[in-house]
Each structure stands twice: as structure tokens, then as C-alpha cells.
Amino acid sequence: MKKVFGLLTAVGLMTAPLAQASTVTVSGSTSVAHVMEVLAENYQNNTQTSVEVQSTGSSAGIRAAKDGTSMIGMSSRNVKDNELNSDTKEIVIARDGIAAAVNNANPVKNLTQEQISKIYRGEIKNWSEVGGEARPIVVVTRENGSGTRGAFEEIMKLQRTINGHKVTAISPTAQVGNGNGMIKTIVANNPYAIGYISLGSVDNSLRAIDVNGVEATDANIATGDYQIARPFIVLIDKNAPDNANSFIEYILSEDGQNIVAEEGYIRIN
């Protein structure tokens, strides 16, 4: 019995690395993770490959792909040249709008991009200045390192340069929420709050307002009429394992892109 047990143990030790190698590790943007988790679950159900998805933020995901701590990184903002190395590939897997979201009780239906920018800069402080009630605006933003925040700041021109470095122009009095879920909770529970979240995360708990008279819809993002939009990007090393490349191939396939659309995002093919 001891010999048999020893043999089984040896076999287990030999096969353990193989089992571990079959796991694809993915980390990064919390916005991309929303759809990535669904893609991973469906992929696992049809293959022998396990996929682990971690929400760590876009900046962390980019670093993880670059230094090899994750096979695949996720970013919901454009990646800067100095964040990559020559072996890192960027692949757009979907597109997403960023919704300026308000409480369902808020009467304001439309804002211009300039008005939203001024609200986040702290230049417009009261809803009465944009057609709402005479109440102070509660401004809610994402945390530093968030891809959604990075994309929002870039699109809305909410960055300024100090000593050659770009810094945020968002008012320091803005409340900070970690992740789409926290932003939704704050806005859904405060009739005078405004926050920005991934369009794919909008539900009945709050309302996406029109921007420049254009509704935040997939169709309007696809045509370019709704301009607060960004790509969902995955990053992978050119020498990444086959199972990581196979998972990305699945994401870009018809089945994968159907899931992207079903989850409320815009497919790329």
C-alpha cells in the first residue's frame, strides 16, 4: 500500500504543474472585468482551460501584462507608449460608452460636454445652473488608476499640465468611489449626485443623461454621435502561452462577440 500511495503521490506531483499551466490569468480594468468574467465562464464550460479574472484597475492590469504577473492585462483606457514594451500586443475586444449618470429623481435630462466638464472642475456647483433644482451638485468620480477615470478625463479635457506632468483637473472636493458598483450606489441613493460609469453597467437604479442632445446608446456610439466612449483593450506578451492566445481568439470569435453584445457593449466585428 505504501508503494502504491507513493506512486500516486509522485504522479500527482508530476501532473500538478500541468494543471496549473492550464489556467489563464487575467487582471486589470474593473469595467472590462464585467464582461471578461462572463466570457471566461462560457469559455471554461466548453474547454478544459480555467480562466481566473481579477479586478485590479487598468494601470495595474497594464503593468501585470508588461511584467508577466498576468498572462493577459485589461485596460478601459488608451495605453500610453511608455507603459508598454516591444513584446506587448494591444488588442481591442469591444467598445464601451461612459455614461454621465444621475439619480432617477433628477429632472435634468441633457447636459453638454462643456457643462459636465465644468461640473467636474467645480465651476458649476448648483443644479439650478443647468436647469435643475436649486441644490448643490454632489460630484462623484472614480479612484486614481481607474481606466474609466483616465478615459473620462481625457475625453472631457479634465487634465492640466504642471511642471511638464499631466494631473487631474477634477475638483478635489469630489467624492471618490472604487468601481462602477460603488458609483452606482452613491448616485442611486443621492438625488443630487452625478457620476460616470461604464454604459454597460447602467441599470434601473439610475439614469444615463443625454450629452449634447445625444442619447447614450450602442447605436449612437457606433456612429460616433455619442462621443464619450472608449475601447476595451487586452494586452498580451507576443510569447504568451498558447492557452492565453486561444482564449483571446475565443473573445474575438462570433460566440465571444455575441457575449460582448449581450452584456451591453459594442462588438468590434
TrEMBL record:
Could you list this entry's UniProt keywords, alphabetically sorted: Periplasm, Phosphate transport, Secreted, Signal, Transport
Q: Which domain of life is it from?
A: Bacteria
Cleaved signal peptide residues: 1-21
Q: List each copy of the PBP domain by range.
A: 20-254
Q: Where in the cell is it found?
A: Periplasm; Secreted
Q: What does this protein do?
A: Involved in the system for phosphate transport across the cytoplasmic membrane.
Homology family: Belongs to the PstS family.
Q: What is this protein called?
A: Phosphate-binding protein
